[in-house]
Amino acid sequence: MARPSTTSRPTSSRAPAGDPSELRRLIAELPGDLREQVHTHSAWAPDRVSSYERLEFLGDSVLELAVALALYDRYPDFPEGRLAKIRSHVVSRQSCAVVARELELGVELAERGAALPAEEIQALARNRNVLAALLEAALAAIFLEHGFEAVEPAIRRAFSGRIEYAATQHVDHKTELQEMLARQRRQVSYSVLEVEGPAHDRTFTCAVSVDGEQVGTGRGRSKKDAEQHAAREALEQVSLEAAQGLAH
Known about the structure:
This protein is mainly alpha-helical. It has helices spanning 21-28, 32-38, 53-74, 80-90, 93-102, 105-112, 118-126, 128-146, 148-158, 160-168, 173-183, 223-247; strands at 188-196, 203-210, 213-220. α3 packs across α8. It starts with 20 loop residues before the first helix and ends with a helix.
C-alpha cells in the first residue's frame, strides 16, 4: 500500500467504520443508575463523584486492554513499538469521539443536560474530549455490569475499522494539530529539548508550544518521530482545555 504524503491530513475520521451495534445494545441495557451516571457531566452533577469522570478513569484502562489484546492477536508479526503506536492512535480522543458519535452518546448527554443554556449544552455534546469521555464511561459501566468478557468483543467490533486504519496508514499528528490551531488562530512551534546517545543510536526529546506555552513533549529515534509524539500529546491537552473551558 502506498504511503500517503505527510502534507495530507489522514485523520481518524477517514478510517473505515466498525460495527458498534453490540456496544449500542449493551449501553441501552445498562441499569438506570449506571446509564444515568454515564451521561452526567460535572457541569450539572451534584458533585464530581456523581459525574461520569470516575467511570471515564476506569473505562480508559478497559479500552486500552481490549485494543491491546486485539492488536496482539491480529498482528502477530508486529514488534512492541509498532503495536504501541497503533494502540495510541486507536484509543486517542479523536478516535473515541468518532465511535461516540456513531453511538449518539452526545445526543443523550444533551437531553439529560437540558437545564443548561441550549448553546452551552450543544457545545458540550459536540466537543471531542467530552464525547471521548462519554465513550470511556460507557465502557466502564458495561465492564462493571457484565465483565470484561462482554465488553471486550464489543470493543473489538466497534473499533475494527480504526485498528485497520492505524495499522496500515501514516497518522500525521503534526498536521492535525496545525489545522486545529489554525482554526483557532493560534500558533504552534517545535523545539529540541535533548539529544541522547551516540550518533548511530540517538534519541530525541522535542517539545511543542502553542502561543509560546509548552503543551506537549515526545521522544523518538528521530527528530520527526519525537515531534509527532509531542504533537499527539498536545492534541490531547488542547482538547482537554477546550472541554474544561466549556464546562465553566
